Structures are given as structure tokens and as C-alpha cells.
Amino acid sequence: MDEPTIDMDAWLDTLATTLGVDPLEEQQVMELLGVARDVAHGVERRATPLATFLLGAATQRRIGHGATSGDAFADAVAELRTALPGTPEG
């Protein structure tokens, strides 16, 4: 028996509402998927959800210090990328 296909975008929007946060923008989704891929292939697959959790925490910390959500997200992603193996700082 085939399982029903879940619409990822709709599910993520519902999850955001459930968690009381703003839904992800399309650009953020693409950026997160790219970072997750880089962590999975450059570090270890098991690190991917943990790294994305830390990315969210870092984004929220920046917002708490007055950054816009877009800037906070972009800055946190940039810092995460510097920590990846093969980068000058990582």
C-alpha cells in the first residue's frame, strides 16, 4: 500500500506555525538544504540535524541582539560555512 505524499512546503509552514516562528522563505529553504548537504558530506551525516539546530539558535541569538531575521540567518550561515572542513577557518 502506498503511503500518501506529504507536501514538504505545506508541512514546514504548519510546523512553523505550530512552533510559533515565521515560516521559511524559499531562499532560506535552498540555503538550509545546501548547508545540510555540505555538513553531511564534509563532516558527517549525523551532524546535519545538530548543525542546523545550532544554526537556528545562532540566528535567534542574533535576532535577540537586534539583527533582522534575514541578516541574522545570512550571518549564521556564513559563520557555519567557515567552520566546514576545507575552508580556510575550518
Compact overview of the structure:
This protein is mainly alpha-helical and 90 residues long. The protein has helices at 8-19, 26-42, 47-64, 69-83.
Which helices and strands, and how do they pair?
Blueprint: H1 8-19, H2 26-42, H3 47-64, H4 69-83
Helix pairs in contact: 2-3, 2-4, 3-4
Record keyword descriptors for this entry.
flat; mainly alpha; 69% helix; 90 residues
What does this protein look like?
By secondary structure, the chain is mostly helical. It is 69% helix and 0% strand. It has 4 helices and no strands. The radius of gyration is 15 Å and the shape is flat. The relative contact order is 0.10.
Instruction: Tell me the Rg in angstroms.
Output: 15 Å
Q: Main sheet?
A: none
Unreliable sequence segments: none
Quaternary organisation: single chain
Percent helix: 55-70%
Shape: flat
Order of helices and strands: HHHH
Beta-strand content: under 5%
Distance between the termini: 46 Å
